[in-house]
Amino acid sequence: MMIVRATKKLRDRIGAPDLHADEQSTTALGEWYATRFAWRPDVLLLVNETTLLPILLPLAPAATALPRAADRIAAIMAAYGADNELVAAEVEHMSNRRIAPTANRSVVGIMTEFTFLAERRKGRELDDLEAWLAGTPCSPLYRTHTTSKNAFRHRLAR
């Protein structure tokens, strides 16, 4: 099961929390945090809690945002060298999704920083902006200044 911990401004668009107290993420990458950029058109930002890897995609239509996010995550996993079995297993686990409120202030802080940085590069292609954000050093990662892209690759190598 994929757990998406969404900000209130995103939950207003994609739906109310539906995570039960005893449910936990079954994905290899763990939970994802999400918010929206109030751009024209709106953009969905997902950040992996473990690696802080950002994923960007158009929010509209909001009803299909999370299934499309799962497809994008799988594509990024494959691009970063995950083997086909791991990607297939992750896709299977992400087919069941739950929405919850945010719980980790550090990840929310990183989303705020990514939002600030993205605003300065607004108008670029989302893929380019996503790659640029993934190359930004994030100090909460393993108490170092590594990038989320490198942390993600390291996580996939396990």
TrEMBL record:
Where the record annotates domain DUF6933, the positions are 3-149
Domain of life according to the entry: Bacteria
- State a single Pfam family of this protein: DUF6933
Record's protein name: DUF6933 domain-containing protein
